[in-house]
């Protein structure tokens, strides 16, 4: 018996012309979770015939080269500053090596699977594979898990393996070990509180020493209407940040895009009503374009997030063509189209100059390899000249949403070093940190060089406070901040009062879009990936926010301080200062 079966095996191998190893390659554990993530519960095996929509990410040829190229085009003083890469140049860095394509495709073919490329560079492929086959191919145990809070279910595995010969070629399989809690977005309520002036001082000798410095922070003189105390409008933002009302002139080349997920829709009729009320100086029929990804359609009644994002881009970035990118219902991977929108924009010959996204995740929900891959996708957009902005999150140090936590919870994509993360402020003269403004330190991405000095200074000031609750070696966020409460938004015909870093990111995007307009008018390139430029600015360009903190996880959170801090970043923008600086750097 024993000999006979060996013989059969041998014959099969001869026929297929491949060594035995191919029939059952040695497998190596590839990704693994030690336990079911909080909020999820297993409820047994799915029907083995259930089809999974699996994606396979290749190891990219040269991600380090991409990173070098990104910094080369975005660091002031570097040789190729703002000389952005073409689509083909970027794709060369991320396209898999031919031998990677060969070994992975051979493995899939041996398993009877035909996969399709899903990205312009071919670094991702996808295929529908049954649960039974996926379990066999990947030594996996795909089970049904329900997310308790939202009563939704997903099919995932706690671990999987890949054939050893695919190591170095296949980066990871998705969604396999990805457990992402579905986003429920409660409106952020900001209730102004009576604060003692030095509320943020954590009570150490060091922190006390800085509070006298705080009083020296320059206070800008401005005429800001008192209504802005209760109700933030485009006029308030124009006043606080010196944003011009005059329309941009570069509509042929300038662009601003708003990413939208979870079925959110922006109604042009709401925008008209909003403009009529809050921008009486411009044509109330000014509207936006819609780009659909994954079958997203935007023809429903207005919803909160989308209305906010569209009204504070079209309504603030006067004269800048704005596109609402509506990402459809593809949510079986938990990422809700986060991969697909970037691929769709990378496929364009001219991606938008600015992209703002007010959605995000707790970093711990995203497996590190997937987070790295998405982060590289933002680097690709950045090297092509897009400023990629994300809201930092609304749960203070406890993450994307307020939650119980034992350790501070950073938010992704804000922790990606290749995006600009926007936190929130409240009040003015002086502005102070919004208590919900998420910020902190990544557990996946190390701190990038551009923020080394700024973050070191902060950590020294902070001393040992809550030291065990965060990873001080990680990429620190946010990078900047802006007003984030009481935004007046027209939703289905009624003006509502909306708060959150969701308000800050589109507003910052609009300011950048107007700076880009001035750049283009001078025949210069748009600003692109902003962080190396922003962190290189001397004091006095941005408005430094030095009061407030972002409580969470049973702590006071991080205090705002002189210079960069993990609540308000480097501070809030000033259009005139930034524009002056950009002009001055050109004359050199
Ligand atoms: C959860 O969803 C299932 C099926 O979709 C349904 O039968 C059940 O009633 C739901 N439970 C709750 C608490 O909503
Ligand atoms: C702000 O709102 C409060 C309560 O809603 C109201 O009493 C007050 O008059 C408002 N202040 C301004 C400046 O609108
Ligand atoms: C908006 O909501 C905040 C907090 O609930 C409140 O203080 C403020 O007065 C409201 N503003 C308006 C215009 O209703
Ligand atoms: C701006 O757009 C016009 C019209 O499409 C084009 O001719 C011109 O070259 C563009 N300028 C730049 C700087 O891209
Ligand atoms: C928009 O402007 C037009 C022309 O000025 C005006 O007739 C119309 O009433 C305005 N729409 C709203 C909603 O105010
Ligand atoms: C801390 O962050 C670094 C990246 O800077 C990461 O390599 C490390 O694993 C993190 N530590 C923990 C305990 O998460």
From TrEMBL:
<dbReference type="Pfam" id="PF09286">
    <property type="entry name" value="Pro-kuma_activ"/>
</dbReference>
<comment type="function">
    <text>Secreted tripeptidyl-peptidase which degrades proteins at acidic pHs and is involved in virulence.</text>
</comment>
<dbReference type="GO" id="GO:0008240">
    <property type="term" value="F:tripeptidyl-peptidase activity"/>
</dbReference>
<dbReference type="GO" id="GO:0004252">
    <property type="term" value="F:serine-type endopeptidase activity"/>
</dbReference>
<dbReference type="InterPro" id="IPR030400">
    <property type="entry name" value="Sedolisin_dom"/>
</dbReference>
<keyword id="KW-0378">Hydrolase</keyword>
<feature type="binding site">
    <location>
        <position position="544"/>
    </location>
    <ligand>
        <name>Ca(2+)</name>
    </ligand>
</feature>
<feature type="active site" description="Charge relay system">
    <location>
        <position position="305"/>
    </location>
</feature>
<dbReference type="GO" id="GO:0006508">
    <property type="term" value="P:proteolysis"/>
</dbReference>
<feature type="binding site">
    <location>
        <position position="565"/>
    </location>
    <ligand>
        <name>Ca(2+)</name>
    </ligand>
</feature>
<keyword id="KW-0645">Protease</keyword>
<feature type="active site" description="Charge relay system">
    <location>
        <position position="502"/>
    </location>
</feature>
<dbReference type="InterPro" id="IPR000209">
    <property type="entry name" value="Peptidase_S8/S53_dom"/>
</dbReference>
<dbReference type="InterPro" id="IPR036852">
    <property type="entry name" value="Peptidase_S8/S53_dom_sf"/>
</dbReference>
<keyword id="KW-0865">Zymogen</keyword>
<keyword id="KW-0720">Serine protease</keyword>
<keyword id="KW-0106">Calcium</keyword>
<keyword id="KW-0732">Signal</keyword>
<protein>
    <recommendedName>
        <fullName>tripeptidyl-peptidase II</fullName>
        <ecNumber>3.4.14.10</ecNumber>
    </recommendedName>
</protein>
<dbReference type="GO" id="GO:0046872">
    <property type="term" value="F:metal ion binding"/>
</dbReference>
<feature type="active site" description="Charge relay system">
    <location>
        <position position="309"/>
    </location>
</feature>
<dbReference type="GO" id="GO:0005576">
    <property type="term" value="C:extracellular region"/>
</dbReference>
<keyword id="KW-0479">Metal-binding</keyword>
<dbReference type="InterPro" id="IPR050819">
    <property type="entry name" value="Tripeptidyl-peptidase_I"/>
</dbReference>
<dbReference type="InterPro" id="IPR015366">
    <property type="entry name" value="S53_propep"/>
</dbReference>
<dbReference type="Pfam" id="PF00082">
    <property type="entry name" value="Peptidase_S8"/>
</dbReference>
<feature type="signal peptide">
    <location>
        <begin position="1"/>
        <end position="17"/>
    </location>
</feature>
<feature type="binding site">
    <location>
        <position position="563"/>
    </location>
    <ligand>
        <name>Ca(2+)</name>
    </ligand>
</feature>
<feature type="binding site">
    <location>
        <position position="545"/>
    </location>
    <ligand>
        <name>Ca(2+)</name>
    </ligand>
</feature>
<feature type="domain" description="Peptidase S53">
    <location>
        <begin position="231"/>
        <end position="585"/>
    </location>
</feature>
């Amino acid at each position: 018996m024993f000999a006979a079966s060996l013989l059969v095996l041998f014959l099969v191998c001869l026929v297929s012309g491949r060594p035995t190893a191919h029939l059952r390659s040695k497998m190596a554990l590839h990704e693994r979770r030690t336990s079911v993530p909080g909020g999820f519960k297993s409820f047994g095996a799915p029907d083995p015939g259930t089809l999974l929509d699996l994606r396979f990410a290749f190891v990219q040829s040269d991600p380090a080269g991409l990173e070098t190229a990104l910094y080369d085009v975005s660091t002031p003083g570097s040789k190729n500053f703002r000389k952005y890469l073409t689509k083909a140049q970027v794709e060369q860095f991320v396209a898999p090596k031919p031998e990677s394509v060969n070994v992975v495709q051979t493995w899939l073919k041996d398993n009877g699977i035909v996969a399709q490329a899903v990205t312009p560079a071919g670094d991702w492929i996808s295929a529908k594979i049954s649960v039974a086959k996926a379990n066999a191919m990947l030594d996996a145990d795909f089970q049904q898990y329900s997310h308790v809070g939202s009563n939704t279910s997903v099919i995932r595995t706690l671990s999987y393996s890949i054939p050893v010969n695919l190591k170095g070629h296949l980066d990871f399989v998705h969604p396999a070990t990805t457990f992402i809690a579905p986003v429920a977005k409660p409106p952020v309520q900001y209730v102004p509180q009576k604060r003692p002036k030095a509320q943020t001082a954590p009570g150490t000798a060091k922190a006390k020493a800085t509070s006298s410095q705080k009083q020296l922070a320059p206070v800008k003189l401005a005429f800001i209407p008192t209504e802005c105390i209760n109700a933030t409008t485009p006029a308030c933002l124009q006043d606080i940040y010196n944003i011009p009302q005059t329309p941009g002139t570069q509509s042929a080349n300038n662009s601003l895009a708003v990413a939208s997920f979870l079925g959110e829709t922006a109604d042009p009729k709401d925008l008209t009503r909003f403009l009529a009320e809050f921008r009486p100086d411009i044509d109330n029929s000014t509207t936006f374009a819609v780009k659909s990804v994954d079958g997203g359609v935007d023809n429903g009644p207005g919803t909160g997030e989308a209305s906010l994002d569209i009204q504070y881009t079209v309504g603030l970035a006067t004269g800048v063509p704005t596109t609402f990118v509506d990402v459809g219902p593809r949510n079986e991977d938990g990422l809700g189209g986060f991969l697909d929108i970037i691929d769709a924009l990378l496929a364009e010959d001219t991606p938008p100059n600015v992209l703002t996204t007010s959605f995000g995740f707790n970093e711990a929900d995203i497996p590190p390899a997937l987070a790295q891959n998405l982060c590289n996708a933002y680097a690709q957009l950045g090297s092509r000249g897009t400023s990629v902005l994300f809201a930092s999150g609304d749960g203070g140090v406890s993450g994307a949403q307020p939650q119980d936590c034992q350790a501070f919870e950073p938010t992704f994509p804000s922790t990606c070093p290749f995006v600009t993360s926007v936190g929130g402020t409240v009040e003015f003269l002086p502005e102070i940190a919004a208590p919900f403004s998420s910020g902190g330190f990544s557990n996946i991405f190390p701190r990038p060089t551009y923020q080394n000095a700024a973050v070191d200074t902060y950590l020294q000031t902070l001393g040992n406070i809550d030291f065990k609750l965060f990873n001080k070696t990680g990429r620190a966020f946010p990078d900047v901040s802006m007003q984030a409460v009481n935004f007046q938004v027209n939703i289905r015909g009624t003006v509502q009062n909306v708060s959150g870093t969701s308000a800050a990111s589109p507003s910052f995007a609009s300011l950048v879009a107007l700076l880009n307009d001035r750049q283009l008018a001078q025949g210069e390139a748009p600003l692109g990936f902003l962080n190396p430029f922003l962190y290189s600015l001397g004091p006095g360009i941005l408005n430094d926010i030095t009061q407030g903190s972002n409580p969470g996880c049973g702590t006071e959170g991080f205090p705002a301080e002189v210079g960069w801090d993990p609540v308000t970043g480097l501070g809030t923008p000033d259009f005139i200062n930034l524009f002056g600086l950009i002009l001055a750097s050109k004359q050199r």
